[in-house]
Amino acid sequence: MQVQALRNTATAEDVMEVLQQDGCAIVRNLVADSLLDAVYAELKPFIEATKVGGDDFAGYRTQRTGSLVARSQSFHQLALHPLVLDTAAKVLGPYCQKFQLHLTQAIRINPGEPGQALHRDQLVYSPFRFPRGMECELHTMWALTDFTEENGATRVIPGSHKWEDDRTPSPEETVPAAMPKGSVMVFTGSVCHGGGANNSQEPRIGVQVGYNLGWLRQEENQYLAVPPAVARHLPEKLQKLIGYSLGGYALGYFGDVQHPKEALKA
User: Is the pTM of this model over 0.70?
Assistant: First the structure.
């Protein structure tokens, strides 16, 4: 078993077909290395200043840097990639009027880090359990460096999105999401996965971008990560994605029933 890999000419329908079957898919070489080099150059000072995790799950040799919308203009192209947004619309669209940006995180797994505990990202909403077959999140992991089994490529269990919630995953059931720089793994919030062990001499660097239903709280507080003074200068599409839009009738207004975009007026 392995994570199914698609060409960069794949459509959202192609990705959706694999997600329905496996809960995860790789699209190889989706963006140019030059874009990812620009993203990394803009984020490097923040990554270097980020402390490693403080527990086994976060990783004592892993750095997790957020607020990517505010910190990297080049990153906007990843968050707004048409294939990803079209896929998110197919996965999340049946359950909400609008989906939104859930989290942004650069993850650098440094040499010597053991494998992360296997988990489902949607457990952030625990103890609530979503109905079987209903996806509340869609995530992407962009490879800023080559992802290999040796350097800590994400471990994932294809098909685990169909499991009962109480089934416990085991490392023996996982496969590495190996992919070259410029590729992306797309996976649902219900699929079991975890960061791999880095047994190499170099860091493994990826960027995770998550999307969720517009009526759920975002894991990364986008209004603090991207305050109005910064958000007012973003492209309108990105403004809406981080939350400066209504998730439904009267869902997300402020003040005297004002539309959130009014908060961005200088």
Answer: yes
